[in-house]
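Tutorial sheet, problem 5. The two components below are modelled jointly, 229 residues in total.
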Amino acid sequence: DQQVKQNSPSLSVQEGRISILNCDYTNSMFDYFLWYKKYPAEGPTFLISISSIKDKNEDGRFTVFLNKSAKHLSLHIVPSQPGDSAVYFCAASAGSNYQLIWGAGTKLIIKP
Amino acid sequence: DADVTQTPRNRITKTGKRIMLECSQTKGHDRMYWYRQDPGLGLRLIYYSFDVKDINKGEISDGYSVSRQAQAKFSLSLESAIPNQTALYFCATSDPRIGTGGNNEQFFGPGTRLTVL
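Model answer (structure tokens):
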């Protein structure tokens, strides 16, 4: 049973437009959520995170929104750039358990 | 530059062979992790270690073993490789005292692509 779900395997967006990547979770004990970005032949790299006490966190072009009642979070990238083409993973953790539970990833393709 | 390295980067082996994947880090982090990634399943935790004397099983530890030789080194072994262990393997480190991702941010190596024939 997947506790963290990214239901879109891929997403194609025009350069300059907004990219919205979605993530749903089932475990109400999750209290920290992270987004990672992965290029081919490289390991994932941390992008942005949000604590469950917040509903929004922004870092430059990247904003993560958390809707706890819906158990849903989203990553917004504005404006999208060619270098944003990558696989994006959503991950979650619960309390003092530092294990991360990962979604399957969404491949984002930015079209010129 | 502080880094997480993995060797080998690619490995092809046969069913029944013993394989060791190695991970080294210069970040000075106490916590280290081994994950595997399969298409459509994201990353799944195999083993993790919070210090040299601490080893813990993750979600999918069956068929794997680990050794934490030093703070900087964490090895993953497949005692008798089987084809469904074909996957991309990642090592990661973390230090709850640092990072902008809260206390759960993990830093990953480049991965080892393992194929078991």
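Marking note: Chain A has a mean pLDDT of 94. Full credit if you identified this.
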